[in-house]
Fold these 3 entries.
Entry 1:
Amino acid sequence: MNTLLTQPTPAVINAENEIAALLSIVPGLGHIYKGRFAAGFFWMFVGMPIAIWIGILLGLATAGMGLLLPIACWAAVAVDAYCELDLRKHHRFLPPSGEADENTLTALRQTLFPQRCR
């Protein structure tokens, strides 16, 4: 039996999700942390600038209430980063070379492809 192949504890998974949400102080950075590079760079360079621009336009038309749109968008990006599936490759779960049996590979597949946002 391979003792190096262990499932991450729920505390570790929760900590990684919280780190992604905290990194979303800079919109998109939490997505990049979780390996979602396209989504991260989209939010960083396209999504949030558009949300800020629309928020400013709506702020002029609604006596400042439209400025809540970028804040709501920013919060939604943080929640999305928290719930995203982690695509990073964690080498801590890989078995030593030449020692992978069917049970080890099954456990590895379950580790790398967990259910989304618990």
Entry 2:
Amino acid sequence: MAAGRTKKSRSRVSAEHVARMVDSVRTLRKLGIATMLEASVFCEAASSRDATLGEIARTIGLPFSSVSRAAYELEQRGLVQYEAHPTDRRKKIIRAASE
């Protein structure tokens, strides 16, 4: 091993963390969210920030077309809604739908 480097230790995932993840997946499935892409788009839309589809695509590292298609499906199921962007007519902000 080179000088100054330390051996990386494996991080372990606690049972509590796994249980929280399983609960989150169950909640998303109850909402009708079945894919990781839809889950990612929904979670970004549910965050407190105002995000456009392009920003979400960059954040999750997937093509705009894939994110747009997933957002459309979520909108059709009433899980997300679009709002006008305050300064750019071409963009829309996506948010989790109000209950």
Entry 3:
Amino acid sequence: MQSPFYSGKKPKFVHVQFNDIVRDPIGVARRIYSACGLEWTRDGEAAMRAYIRESEERRENEKMGSVHFPYMLEQFALDESELRETFKEYRYQQGYA
């Protein structure tokens, strides 16, 4: 089976590292917009900046150190071994092998 990620065609996804989005969420959003051929607007950026600011304030007010999402693969009818096989090449390329 040919990898959906490295088939020689233009990728249909944008790889985003968690640390990049934490460090520069607006820069990452710009990159995603560009990759999708979407127009970047000042109003859109202002809305994103407001959301980020409000989110940071909310976390500070709630004194949340980290967020844990208790999702399980089974909830979404996903199988870990299938996901590992499907994303094997991608994980290798990203250093997660």
